[in-house]
Amino acid sequence: MKLWKGLALAMLLLATACMAPKTVIVTQEVTREVEVTRIVAEQQGGGEQAPAATYTRYPTYTPYPTFTPPPPPTATPTATSTAGPTPTNTVPPTEAPTETPTAAPTRPPATATPVLTPTPAMKQLEDTDPGPPLTILVSGNRAGENSTYVVSGILRNDSTETFDSIGVDATFYDDEDFRHGPLSAKLPFLILRPGEECPFYVELAARRVEAFLLHPNGRSTDRESAPVRLQNLNLIYGTDSVRVTGTAVNINEFKIKNVAIAGVLLDTSGHIVSLGSAYSLEEDILPNGTVPFDLRITRVPFYRYQLYAQAERDWE
């Protein structure tokens, strides 16, 4: 009986021993499977999940500030003193050259000894074409250097009417009867009332000119010319020009406008050898009012000079 019990106990122990390894293996496998599953879950973000990443927005775009150039450096003043402005007179426009004359003596040229009237260089032809009743008085008729020919003189109104748009046309003929022109002579004034006169000057560059013809132009008008007085005259004898400055005074009892000044140089025989003019387009010049003028005449050998002045009545 004891032997049977002992055998039964041994068999029980043997059975127990046989079953124990199987239980341990299963447990180890299950444990391994759990461990593997947790590792995979951690790589995929499972298991003990880490906190989700917070989305951070891109910073708001801030434009660059507008570029402002720095102020230019201020030049350091030098110790050189600056002279104050020199006062100058405002002068009206003039057809004569406006260059500043070179330094030259301001005294008039030495008085020349009068000479005989030079022989005319060309023959004056008679004008048979009817024109306005204006008289042409020829002063200069001469040949110059480099095949140039000059005719100068005075246009005078001997009629009882006033004329505007006045002029002198000059036509020249050479030794083969070839015609040059007509050319418009330089004439500073636009209006001539009865008894008034205006100088003219025309020059031609050509060869072997033998004759010329002069024809007056003008039309009757209701416009009125007006006299002016010249004062404060100042003469400067330059190398290339004779300059005359001064003021024109309205000596009338009404307003005037369009003051015109003409200046001529005369040789020893009284012939016009050069002509210049100056204009002031100022209007509403009251009685006793003044306007400045600056006149330049191309300088050639001369004996004396003469000025002419005129304005127009301002009805407005």
Question: Your description of this structure?
Answer:
The structure is a single chain. With 316 residues, the chain is mainly β. Among the domains are: 123-220, Sandwich (Immunoglobulin-like); 225-313, Immunoglobulin-like, CATH 2.60.40.2850. The chain is 13% helix and 39% strand. It contains one helix and 15 strands; from the N terminus they run αβββββββββββββββ. The protein has one helix at 2-43, and strands at residues 123-124, 134-143, 148-157, 163-174, 179-184, 191-192, 197-205, 209-220, 225-226, 228-237, 241-250, 256-266, 272-280, 290-298, 304-313. The strands form four sheets. Strands 1, 4, 5, 6 and 8 form a five-stranded mixed β-sheet that branches. A four-stranded antiparallel β-sheet has the order 9-15-12-13, with no helix packed on it. A three-stranded antiparallel β-sheet has the order 2-3-7, with no helix packed on it. Strand 10 (228-237) and strand 11 form a beta hairpin. Residues 20-68, 73-108 and 110-114 have low confidence and may be disordered.
